[in-house]
Amino acid sequence: MKEVLTNPTSGYYMNRDVFGQTGDFITSPEISQMFGELIAVWLVNEWTKCGRPTPFQIAELGPGRGTLMADMLRVFSKFKIAGSDFSVSLVEVSPYLCQVQEKQLCPSQAQEATEVPQGSQHYKQSISLYGSQIRWYNHISDLPRTFTLFLAHEFFDALPIHKLVKVNQDWREVLIDLNRENLNLRYVISRDRTPACLYRLDSEKREELEVSPQSLVITQMMAARIHQDGGIGLVIDYGHEGDKTDTFRGFKNHKLHDPLVDPGTADLTADVDFAALKWAATQPRTFEDWEANLTYGTVDQKDFLTRIGINLRLEQLLASCRNVNVARNLKSAHKMLTDPMEMGSKFKFLALYPSVMKKILERYPPPGFV
User: Fold this and answer.
1) What is the SS3 assignment for 285?
2) Using CA atoms, how far apart are residues 211 and 272, in angstroms rounded to an integer?
3) Pairwise CA distance, residues 116 & 118, whole Å
4) Phi/psi at 174 (nearest 5 deg)?
5) What is the 3-state secondary structure (H, E, C) of 227-268?
6) Is 55 helix (H, G, I), strand (E, B) or coil?
7) Which of 101, 181, 222, 283 has its CA 20 to 30 A from that of 89?
8) What is the signed CA dihedral for 137, 140, 142, 148, rounded to 10 degrees?
């Protein structure tokens, strides 16, 4: 998965725009501004609960086209959140998508190269439409140490998985091999246990499952930053609570595609194991004062968006709309985002908080989750 998606020369994400109607799949921010606006309001609300600490950053993992961040920054500007006390950090490995994001978020700066100071952890920097610093990083470990609002929308589903199956009461890994007769790729079972089989399987009841060590490592890094520096995490993705088995698949032109056919031309994805992410986020670290981070969720997208006001936002937009086609599109977007048969039940929300927020959250639970 890692090779097919992020190979520097021919990786799926590295040299093309794969989003939207002309791409291979569409995401919630591309469907309607309402999605990003509500996420921004939620983040501002939770940041306020923390005492509005400054300086702070919002860090998005895998920002896509930058559409979600653009909608959020517009809302942040309405709350007068900008300037030197606030910055944006984008974790992006695709050079092509980095350029797309810069054009989206920094329209007046996109044609002017901004020099990155020598020794910096980021590889690109610019100024947003609203005056905030935006910096691009290769990995979450490179981010500045400060209070951080972490956001991961459809990020974890693209991280590499290992597929494990039980054979004669022992675990084996599903590997990918080359059929030398016809030169096609094929699945094979490992002869013995592989390192991936060391995953916590003692109490596992499933006969097959998918594990993503990279997802667990990144979640633990996020949890550690939240514990040490302060912050909040919001993860949005399609997934399950540790009960699904075979979800690895490809998408091309908005249709399912065999992952082993024409690798590099289709998106590869697997449902996120949210139970595993919650386990990773709450595991003890080496800190002497460690107390497990708090997790809320998962909740379905339809419930989260409805609870924080998407119906009211739709009414506001329709009230100011004078174009019949625009109004029709707004209603259609609302339905796609919230209908259980569309994205409403498919996508899940998970929130991470530091343990010091426990008493505050008992009194003021996070909106959208209750």
Assistant:
1) coil
2) 9
3) 6
4) -80, 120
5) HHHCEEEEEEEEEECCCCCCCCEEEECCEEECCCCCCCCCEE
6) coil
7) 283
8) 100
pLDDT in tens, the chain (370 residues): 999 999 998 888 887 777 656 555 678 888 999 999 999 999 999 999 999 999 999 999 999 999 999 999 999 999 998 777 999 999 999 999 999 999 999 987 655 556 787 778 999 999 999 999 999 999 999 999 999 999 999 999 999 999 999 999 899 999 999 999 999 999 999 999 999 988 877 788 899 999 999 999 999 999 999 999 999 999 999 999 999 999 999 998 889 999 999 998 999 999 999 999 999 999 866 555 556 789 999 999 999 999 999 999 999 999 999 899 999 999 999 999 999 999 999 999 999 999 999 999 999 999 999 9
Q: How far apart are CA 30 and CA 26, in angstroms?
A: 7
Reported as type and span, the H/E element at residue 89 is: strand 86-91
Query: Alpha-carbon distance 309 to 333, whole Å?
Result: 15
Question: Which SS3 state, helix, strand or coil, does residue 349 take?
Answer: strand
**Nearest-angstrom CA–CA distance, 163 and 156:** 16
Domains identified in the chain and CATH numbers: 1-158+212-363 (3.40.50.12710), 162-211 (no CATH)
In the block, tokens 């985002």 appear at 337
Pairing outcome for strands 272-273 and 231-240: parallel
